[in-house]
Predict the 3D structure of the following.
Amino acid sequence: MNEQPLILICNDDGVEAPGLRYLIESVADMGHVIAVAPSEPRSGQSAAITVNSPLRIKRCEDIAGAEVYAVTGTHVDCVKLAMHTVLADRKVSVMLSGINHGSNAGNCVVYSGTMGAAFEACMIGIPAIGFSLLHHSWKADFSQCGRFVRKITRAVLENGLPAGVCLNVNIPAKCIPKGIKTVKSSEGYWTEEYVDYKDPQGKPFYFLSGQFVDRDANNEATDNYWLDREYVTVVPVRPDPTASDLIPSIGAMLGEECQ
Amino acid sequence: MNEQPLILICNDDGVEAPGLRYLIESVADMGHVIAVAPSEPRSGQSAAITVNSPLRIKRCEDIAGAEVYAVTGTHVDCVKLAMHTVLADRKVSVMLSGINHGSNAGNCVVYSGTMGAAFEACMIGIPAIGFSLLHHSWKADFSQCGRFVRKITRAVLENGLPAGVCLNVNIPAKCIPKGIKTVKSSEGYWTEEYVDYKDPQGKPFYFLSGQFVDRDANNEATDNYWLDREYVTVVPVRPDPTASDLIPSIGAMLGEECQ
C-alpha cells in the first residue's frame, strides 16, 4: 500500500463538479487518491489565495474509493491546506487539477483556477497537470477524456517533470480526439467584453461576456489551432513569469543605477 | 491636452489605499491620469476575474486632478471595465498598478493582484508596470518611491515595452534605495503555512500565515537578494506562462500521437 503513488486531485469548479468525479474515477486504480476541492465554484480565480478569512476543511463522501474533502476557500487554498492537514506533508507523486468544465487554452490560462491550483503544486515541488474539457456544461460528456488523462498521468508518474514546470492539458469536446500535440498557448484578446444593463432605477451595471479573437488562428505551433482540429493539446507552463531573455535589454533601458 | 500621455492607474488594495493615492500624486504631472480601483481590497487574488456576478463602476473624489473610479469587482475587472466604460477603448500610453502595500518579489508574483492587473493591461497591448513597497502597513512611508516610479514610468513612456512583457517593480522599505537592479524573481517556498485554531465547538479552522524560505538567498541574479541590500528591483515578466524551451522534450515524453 505504501508503494502506491499518492495522487492529489483538486479543481476550481468545486467538490460537486462532474469533472472532478470523472477525474477521480479515471485514475482511481493508478494509486492512492485524495481529492481536495473548493466547497463552491471558483472559476476564473487564477492563483487567488484567501488571506484575511479563516478556512475550514471537511470530509465528504468517498468517490471511487478516494477520500474527498471540501475547503471553504480557493483551489490554491485547497492545495496548501491539503498539505497542512490530510496529507501532513507526505510526498505526493502527482497532482491533477480538473477536469475543468471549459477551455483553459490560449490566454485563458492566465485566469484559470485549474492552472492556479497546478501552479501551487508545482511551486511546492509536486509534478502537476491541469486538465480541461472544451465544454462549459455541467452535463458535458467527459467519456473521451479518460484515456488521455491516464496516458499523460502515467508518463508524468514514470518520468516526472522538470523543476518549476507543469502541464496545461486541453481536450476538445464532442469528438474522438485524434492524438496529442505539445505546443504553446495561442495568443489573442477578447472583444465585446461586457453586456450593458440598466437596473430598475436606471443605473448601469455590467456582466462579463466577450468573444476570444485568436491572433494565432493559423499558427500550428499553438494550442487553439490543434484543439480546433480535434487534438488534445499539452502546453508546458512555468508559474514563474520572469522573462529572463529580456533582463539585459530592460536593464539597459532603465540603467543599472538610478542615482 | 490630447497629446498628453493617457495614464491608467489600478491597484488591488482598493480605492481607499494610501498606495494608490501616492502613485497618482507621483505621476499627476506626467499625463492625463485616470484611476480605476476595486471598491474593496483584493490582495492575493492573482489574475482573478468576476464571471458570475454583475459589476458596477462609480466615480469617486478626484485625487491630484485625476479622475478616480471604484469597481465592485477585482483589479482585473477594473482594467477590463475601465476600457469598456470611462476609457471607451482610447489608447492608453501606460498602465501603472499599485503602489502595493507589501512585497510582490519572489514567488509572491504568482498570487499578486497588483501584477494580475498589470498582466491584463499587458495582454490588451498596454505597456504596464506594477509597483510594490515592501511594507504591509496602511501607514507605510511611500516617500522614497516617487522618484523611482517617475524614472521607470518615464523610461517606459519613452521606449515602450516589448509585446507581451510587463514590469514587476519592488521597492525596499525604511531606507533610501541605492539604485535599480533588473533581475529575475527569486525562487522559494513557504513553511508553517497555517495557524491552527479551534472554534467554541472544538472544530478546527485555519488562517494563512507562513514564512517565505528563499532558495535564492545568495543568488545575486534575483530580486529578493537586491531588495535585502536596499535596491529597487525590476523583473520583466510575461503573462503567457508557456515554457517554450521544453516543448520538444515534453512532446517526446508524451509522443506526438497517442493512438
